[in-house]
Design a protein that fits this description.
single chain, Urease, subunit C, domain 1, TIM Barrel, 2 domains, nine-stranded mixed sheet, six-stranded parallel sheet, globular, binds zinc ion
Length: about 425
Amino acid sequence: MLFSNCSILRPNGEILENAYLQVTDDKITYIGTKKPTRHTGAVYDYTNKLLLPGFINTHCHVPMTLLRSVGADLPLDRWLSEKIFPLEDKLNKDWAFSGSLLGIAEMLRSGVTSFSDMYFFGESRANAVLESGINANLCMGILCFDDSPFDKAPMVQESKDLFHAYHNANGGQLKIDIGLHAEYTSNPIIAKAASDYAKEIGANMHIHISETKKETDECIARHGKTPVAYFNDLGVFDNHVTAAHCVWLTEQDKQILADKKVSVAHCPISNLKLGSGIADMFSLMEKGINISIGTDGVASNDNLNFLEDMKLTALLQKGLHRNPAIFPASEVFKMASQNGALSQNRMQTGALKLGNQADIIAIDYHSINLLPCIDVISSLVYATLPSDVKMTMVNGKILYENGQFHTIDIEKVMHEVSRIGRKLY
Ligand SMILES: [Zn+2]
């Protein structure tokens, strides 16, 4: 198919005007200002539309759409123990499937083409991903609250089963990572065994690290070291790791993350909502750490509008450092796209260039809240609303277009989630 008369955002930040982009199967096969001589499939007139790579949400718990706005105004430990854990005990795999589809629809609507997700109900999430067509790196969050051996710890067998059943399913649309929930929900034997297992099978790892001061202080009391130093000493960072949050880091922690090339998934809205703090991402950027952006689960966000997280990522660092020049929109856009691709270990996406996967979104900049669109990248990060996302394509297939979902029966999903809500609460 061919998109014509559009603007195209190139990886170097340049905007190509009156341009053409061709998609053949699942790849980008032409970008230029001359109409390609040979093209097949439908031709879309995309006048006034900007094509850019889809956003990558690198930390989510997608079935938590079912727990939207639960436990508001509580700190993380009480929010988890008093509200979230008791409700999660009531969930089942069918409900998790519906909640996942609702969350995926919400992400597609704000331009997300891939997400990294840690939760229970691996099969339900995997099936929702495959049915919807979105890309995802899914993992179970391995936990252990006693002296169980690795193979008996919760979510270990489920992690192995999920990996063997779904890793690289549908040509790599779905990848399975090894998730370790956190330091405070496991022990050194389990953490090391999970890390060794990830090495053995060549999987990425996904871990919550230093989300709260309490978590960090208690880790120091338990092990005499910070969560970052603890995981590093266990060899965990010899894997390809995405560390979610990283709000409470020492200078030594930052150096370890930089040296070990750990990607950090910054979740600004969740960190603010739960009162966890404001992560100093600028200091991580100065060390050359790969920073990407995550929504976290809906229960602490309280939506999956990724555009809000992008805007807040920029604003928080400017305010924190009293410097409007840091975290420019172009850098935040890179975090939302290329850096996310690196976090997910998906090097064929995150930028519009020849040969890359056709993971593309279209923003209609002839819009009330975007006109006059003088600085496109600034408008993208600071002024764009989900209603401006007119098309979301993943692997060459249009999944969302002009408010319509092509692979999700959204009315049915909304009806189902409403029904679940009445049973759950
Ligand atoms: Zn999380």
